[in-house]
Amino acid sequence: MSDASIHSQVPENEASFGDYFALLKPRVMSLVVFTAMVGLLAAPGGVHPFIAFCAILFIAIGGGASGALNMWYDSDIDQVMSRTKSRPIPSGKVTREEAFAIGMTLSVMSVVMLGLATNWFAAGLLAFTIFFYVVIYTMWLKRWTPQNIVIGGAAGAFPPMVGWAAVTGGVSVESVLMFTLIFMWTPPHFWALCLFMKSDYKDAGVPMLHVTHGRAVTRNHILVYTLLLAAIAVSMAFTSIGGWIYLTVAVVMNAIFVAGAVSIWRRSDAQCEADNHKREKSFFGFSLLYLFLHFGAILAEVALAPYGLGGW
Predict the structure, then answer these.
(1) HSE-up of 225 (CA within 13 Å, CB side)?
(2) What is the CA radius of gyration of the chain?
(3) pLDDT in tens, 169-178
(4) How far apart are CA 275 and CA 258, in angstroms?
(5) According to the model, what pLDDT value does residue 13 have?
(6) Would you give the distance in Å from CA 260 to the centre of its chain?
(7) Are 286 and 213 contacting, i.e. CB atoms less than 8 angstroms apart?
(8) Residues whose CB falls within 8 Å of the CB of residue 144, separated by 6 or more in sequence, listed in order
(9) Structural contact between residues 178 and 160, judged by C-beta atoms closer than 8 angstroms
(10) What pLDDT digit, counting tens, does each position of 281-292 carry?
(11) 196 Cβ partners below 8 Å, 6+ apart?
């Protein structure tokens, strides 16, 4: 039987491996993996490479579990929003029950295995991260307050702390600053996206800031959070994980980021509509590079330290 005839016998709504993998939000998972890896490698002491690999793997699985549980709970609003209606549950590829079972199974597995591979403090921090994202953010904050992404952003900021804890068994100023960098980055990053979204969040009944208070207020918030973020990002250069490489990256990137926020702040709704939110889209795209290069600079400091090229 030919491949074409076999494919024709498969129902259009039958789930593939890709559909189940999509439940884990692989884009978000990639951010979790990268920041957790930087936290782990920057931590003093170090661990065996195999232990490090296992730690990152289980942190990634925990992040994916959170994504599956988020899709399980948010399947009703995902059906309404154009950005999310093609996800596995709204598209009919995966049932809510399957998503819940996968999310819960992976949550327990990731926490237990991380505890066995590293230490139970790191495992407890991973468990709290999953709980925070699913219960505090998804079930409570997201549909209740326009500050949802501010408080809820903590869920995406925990991975470098978990990676650090996997090595040290605790927290430190450095791991808290890595957490704070992501925490303060999340609102301007996400609000920039909201500015050029159509009516998705309004249609879904999600009280995002631009829905409840308007785009002008949202632009004000982007500027304030970007200024606070810049101060935190630069200050991290003067800790044990910083150095001249990180400081150079932080100064350049934050100068560009602040300039972008000021440019957005000065615009009116009419100007945004006239050029189809060109600056907001550019700011959002740059925000992804911003976070990657900050953590990449920390990684560069770690890699060059043995040769006397990193740090101060």
Answers:
(1) 26
(2) 21
(3) 999 999 999 9
(4) 21
(5) 64
(6) 21
(7) no
(8) 207
(9) yes
(10) 999 999 999 999
(11) 272, 276, 277, 280, 281, 284
